[in-house]
Amino acid sequence: MRNELEVKLIPIYILSRKHLVPEGSTIITAMEYAGFKLKKGIGCREGFCGACASLYRLETDFKLHGGLGCQTVVQPNMQIVQIPYTPSPKAIYDLETINPEEEVFTATYPELYRCLSCNTCAKICPQEILVMDYVQAGIKGDLALMADLSFDCIMCGLCAARCPAEITQFNAALLARRLFGKYVNKKGRFLEDRIKQIQDGKFEEGYRELMNLPKEAITKRYFDRELNFKIT
Amino acid sequence: MAYPEYMKESIELVHKTRAKRLEIDKIGIQNVLTPLTEEGRKKVLSENHPDYTPDARKQIRIGPNKGEWLTTKVVEILESHSRLPTTFRLDKPDYETDVLVIGGGGAGCQAAIWARLHDAKVIISTKLRMGDANSMMSQGGMQAAVNPNDSPLIHYLDAMGGGHFDNKPALLKILTQEAPKAVKHLEDLGVIWDRIADGNLQTKTGGGTSRRRMLSSRDYTGAEIMRVLRDEVRNHPEDITVLEYFPAIELIKDQEGKIAGAILFHMETGEYAVVKAKTVIITTGGFGRLHIKDFPTTNHYGATMDGLVMAYRAGAKLLHMDSVQFHPTGAVYPPQILGFLITEKIRGFGGQPVNKFGELFVFPLEPRDVEASDYIQECRAGKGIPTPDGHIGIWLDSPIIDLIHGPGTIEKNFPAMVRQYKRFDIDIRKEPMLVYPTLHYQNGGIEINEDTSTSIPGLYAAGECSGGVHGRNRLMGNSVLDYNVFGRIAGISAAKKAKETIIAGNLTIDHIGKYEEELLSARIITPLKTPVLLPEYRNLDLVSRHLDEFDPFLPAGL
Amino acid sequence: MKRIPYYPGCSLQTKAKHFETTAMAVAEALDYEMITLPRWNCCGAVHSLTSDDLMHHIAPVTTLLRSKEFSEANQLDDSRLVVLCAMCLNVLKRTNKRVIELIDDRTKMNDFLYLESSKYDGSTQVIHFLELLKEIGWDVLSRKVTHPLSNLSVSPYYGCLLLRPKEVGIDDPEAPVIQENLLHSLQAKVVENPLKNRCCGSYHTLADKQVVVDLSYDILTNAQKAGAEIITTSCPLCAFNLDQRQEDIIKKYSGFKKIPVVYFTELMMIAFGLPLKNAGLDQHYVDPRPLFIEKEMYHEE
Q1: What is the pTM for the complete model shown?
Q2: DSSP states along C16-77
Q3: Which ipTM did the prediction report?
């Protein structure tokens, strides 16, 4: 059953000028429809890169909303603006020599301790992350919790833009995740063992053989190969 | 949005057949629905894959690959004019460096990090921001033969077969043998890999893999790696300069024919800049935004094959540019997410492709080209589900994953997908997704050697823009591996080469003039100027009244 | 086992971890389970006490609200919020008082917290662990004593925030007796130090530690003059200033003799005969263990 798609146009305000755009457009596609060639504030268009952070107001309430331009569907009389970039301090550190103790943030992002627990950051986060909770985890020195809670962060910058204490949450979280991944996360043996085997040249002979097989032989070997999904 | 009424009947069938299909999973799908044989593969590909239609390819009339049959759209883009005005003069360089990296994605950042570790000064030129790349978007995983019941040799065999045996053996050996080391490097940089209870890396299956070796970071694998690499680049501002919104549009040579830098164009200010560099690495990624055969794409906004255009104009040979990868599972509903990537990891966890009657109709983990062709075939046979805006798809049954692995599995391993659909009122833990093949990956590219050098001295390439590693069809997880392994090798090779390089004489862009002459001789008439830089999505009615004829983004022909 | 919500505050889970573990062990011996509030946030410390800025009160109000929700959701036996850190106690109680009394401020804050699941109505009551012990009853405590501290001379120290301002203090600011009563129930010899409620210097320890050095010197030497062998305290910051700073006191006052400073809960562990492995006795600058061994009070297990 295929309907002809009726293009219903609705009014929105881009930089305070009224435009008519198709219902169902996202902020990004609405701006393109209205003639804007987007050269910034746009990236993957799929919700992963955080380039298209946007602020908007709806005619139904007084609040200032935030969202991703590529994922937020426009509503009638919405007022939108893009925030392609929020200036944010980034600490310079050497992951090899940094001390992953609880004081790591005093040296890198001391503003973290200014947190008022007002939860403004979590309210604006387009990824529904408990931003305040991970900031508090950072204050307590709990890197594992901070890494876990902040995992889905795409670093769009909206939290930092709205924070009354002027914290740069997403950069602190990135540091916490890197420290967790490097120092705290439990590691097993398989990877090391395999790397050692490779260094010892265990597979050289096998590669030589495979690389010299004529096309028919390797084709056969490929289609005959066993599918075995056990780990050991 | 939720699903329209008319789809509900089909969705009900999917729910009804789930219990039976769960049984099939328990036995092992490969025991019930066997993967296709060589003949089976050839048949479904030739009858359904977009690469095999009569108009899929065209002979290119100029350049290093002259006479070869390449993908039609690729040929159209390559047979084009430079964006540089004919009056452009190369004068004093605005920037000088050892290594110029063109493209700020995963490969570019790896290259910069490793070039710096080998004492090179680096400039990264990027069209959008560093990290706005396909690397940021990949979801499901990276292949590495880390389990005891696996080996790099089996990884090699899997990738070779998936690539139609066209992969360059030496490159594939490097890819597969360096994989575990690449995992370790990333771990040392702080990447959080998914792990199982004993601390070992979690491994899943992927399309065309005969062992479990798909490592992941939830379904944010690409984003997790990209965030870390980008952060590491930013930790060294004295050695690595990042020029954002400043893409390269032409390569520069010296009097000996070596690549000696590039011309950049600032998209905001409209200015040009000349970068003089001892070596250049191209890491410009893919071509999804060229919408080959009008397919929607998974790619980011800037994936317009810029690197190939510049390299080709400079005389670099391309490889396997007749092969386009369509990812079998791109979203088709709701329309706002048309073409978006639904990670193969869903099938790796047991998600099943199911037609409108709720039937599992194909082995879920064939290599991508085979799998995509199977879905196209099924829809052609009338067993797909149409969407209100004129597209079609089959169901990808995701709720079955929680039945196989326990409640909460989907939420834990696919937070990005859950969120994406939740924004449009669809709960993928309870409802299936509607999918269809989408334009995804450039299998070929600028041909590289084992050290990532190309056919032009001084020019290196790594990542999706390079050709030879994956043959004519890339397996899941090998692209993320590719940019980490070869990005690093490119950085090291370029840095070492830069140490012994002396730029000979004046800089020149004569090769551009020569390319223009070739166009003339071949009697190619086209208004197109490339690199494309950004696709055109503006409402053309409005744009046609555009007054500024100097807008570099005005579509050709208006 | 009676369950009561517990608010740790930042120090109690890091530098002063043994204060928490010993308090929890003692509480358990007295049939109380202290349950750490999930999703607790920093109380804001001194920053939350500014009176001209409502924003700074949001942190403690959020905590009070979370405590109320947690008690209700889990139907806890005791819905009061027990706190160990004197600074957190002070902040939470003062904010609570303000929010209860100034209805306009409370309304505004609730409006701002609109995404929380409920509003704060001032119903959370904040108490210090010492108050809970007093309520349980000194006689109950003394019945639990298996190793009386009878040959130990203890000087309890209060500092400021447990006692002042009077509206939120847990005892008489001029003549407090709560720690003394506790120590009597443990059969310790209590020694009176006239400077037991004198400020230790608090956060001056960061910017100008000589202030703390002088103040601590007076407090400690007065206790020693009165015959004290050990000092007890109930505040992680006081503990730091009186214990760790002895390293600096010695540099300035060469004749000074070191004296151990412990949390009162550590003495309770010894008196109750509880295993001392996790009591954190090794976490001090001035090691109390030689003293305990000399008094034959130190049992490994």
Answers
A1: 0.89
A2: THHHHHHHHHHHHHTTEEEEEPTT-----GGGGG-SS-GGGGHHHHHHHHHHHHHHHHHT-S
A3: 0.94
